[in-house]
Write a structure and sequence with these properties.
The protein contains five helices and 29 strands. It is mainly β and 429 residues long. The chain has three domains: 86 residues, Immunoglobulin-like; 101 residues, Immunoglobulin-like (Sandwich), CATH 2.60.40; 144 residues, L,D-transpeptidase catalytic domain-like (Beta Barrel), CATH 2.40.440. Keywords: Acyltransferase, Cell shape, Cell wall biogenesis/degradation, Peptidoglycan synthesis, Transferase.
Length: 429
């Protein structure tokens, strides 16, 4: 059926009847097709991407297409110009626990970095002053999985984020640390903490950070390496103050001592400094004075090392006590006749074999003559009389007590001989 349109007045006056031809079904304006294409493109550009480094990265959220029909528009947020980089890469394994973790950003500033282990505990770290990088303040634990979450913004404030996971290596070789501290023990004011390693330490700076000493009076404690870097001795500048509480913290389990070799212990030990007892031996005068907690010194007659086997000069520390000690000349380099004897009330003060001990022969010569093989001998019986001069001195002594020898014709004791570190100036320690 045809539709007839009424013509204009002019058309009617001319007697012309205009006919309207309907459009064929299915045709749309080209402008509508172009708009539909624009919507499709906007949807594609608004999706999140993946950072080239492997960490999942997302930019600020884009706008949603408006509801409705023809004429609706789409707004897409501009991606952040900031680019995050997380090292190690996502999924990395066997990562070294020290020096490998770092988060950085280009064309932006870091706003947040969170690194957590399997227990959810955060890893301490700090963002650099320029806001461009983050590193942990300490090493990570070995054999542990970690998650990194980082955020940054560009100059326009548009945010980007990255999430990364990795795991640290499990050491194939570990080594033990031994020390001379017994927890809850009381030591003398000359106590030096000695730590021994099974093999030479190559990464000494890392080990020094992993073994720390904390004193209740905030005394500064430093370490010095001996014996081919297999031993670390720690002490303050001067003798400890009586009553000081001392804690030693070992955090070596995740520290690389040498290439491929890690420590195996995280532990804490503590001790207390007891009364002050300083013994000074004058080898020439055949006397020693004992000064205890500031009281008037006690003078005791002794016998020191003979001219053939003189005693060491210097500051030494008692580090072993034995009620009866077997002494064998075959273990030393002394001059004269060989001997193998048991001596009572023995207090060892050098690794090379110097003792302060009871000497049954000292009773006849103490205060007048030096007859020993280098030790400081006190009058005593062969079996050791607890009421003798040696017995009373022994009972009143503790590990860490100071013994100073002077005026001997012998050599100076070396800082690594026993706990002889007090013989090294603090500036060289």
């Amino acid at each position: 059926m045809q539709s007839i349109r009424v013509g204009s007045a002019n058309e009617r006056s001319n007697g012309v009847a205009s006919r309207w031809k309907p459009r064929r079904a299915g045709r749309r304006p080209l402008a509508a097709l172009a708009l539909g294409g624009a919507l499709l493109l906007a949807t594609a550009c608004g999706s999140a991407g993946v950072h080239p480094g492997g960490a999942a990265v997302s930019a600020g959220a884009g706008g949603n297409a408006g509801a409705g029909g023809a004429g609706a528009t789409s707004v897409t947020a501009k991606p952040s110009a900031a680019v995050l980089d997380v090292e190690p890469k996502n999924g990395a394994q066997d990562v070294p626990p020290s020096g490998a973790l770092k988060v950085s950003v280009t064309s932006g500033k870091l706003t947040q970095v969170a690194v957590t282990g399997p227990d959810g505990q955060a890893v301490a770290g700090a963002v650099a002053a320029d806001g461009l990088s983050w590193v942990p303040t300490a090493g990570l634990a070995v054999g542990t999985a970690y998650k990194v979450s980082a955020q940054a913004v560009d100059a326009a404030g548009v945010r980007t984020t990255a999430t990364n996971t990795f795991s640290t290596l499990t050491p194939s070789k570990t080594t033990r640390t031994d020390d001379n501290v017994t927890t809850n023990e009381t030591y003398g004011v000359g106590m030096i903490i000695r730590v021994d390693f099974q093999k030479a330490v190559k990464n000494k700076a890392a080990v020094e950070k992993a073994i720390t000493v904390q004193a209740s009076d905030n005394t500064v404690v430093k370490g010095h390496w001996f014996d081919g870097d297999t031993r670390l001795d720690l002490r303050p500048e001067s003798y400890w103050k009586p009553g000081t509480k001392v804690a030693v913290h070992f955090r070596t389990k995740s520290v690389e001592f040498a290439p491929g070799v890690y420590g195996n212990s995280d532990r804490d030990e503590s001790f207390t400094i007891g009364r002050s007892k300083i013994t000074t031996v004058d080898a020439q005068a055949h006397r020693m004075t004992v000064a205890k907690d500031g009281a008037a010194p006690q003078t005791i007659a002794i016998t020191a090392g003979s001219d053939d086997n003189p005693s060491y000069n210097g500051t030494m520390v008692v580090f072993q006590k034995t009620r009866m000690e077997h002494m064998d000349s075959a273990t030393t380099t002394i001059k004269g006749a060989a001997y193998s004897v048991d001596e009572p009330h023995a207090m060892k003060i050098t690794d090379s074999g110097t003792y302060v001990h009871g000497n049954p022969k000292a009773g006849a010569v103490a205060g007048r003559q030096n007859i020993s093989h280098g030790c400081v001998g006190l009058p005593d019986t062969e079996d050791g009389d607890d009421n003798s001069v040696a017995g009373r001195f022994y009972a009143d002594s503790i590990l860490g007590d100071v013994v100073i020898v002077k005026n001997s014709i012998g050599k100076d004791v070396q800082p690594d001989n026993g706990l002889g570190g007090w013989n090294m100036p603090w500036s060289a320690w």
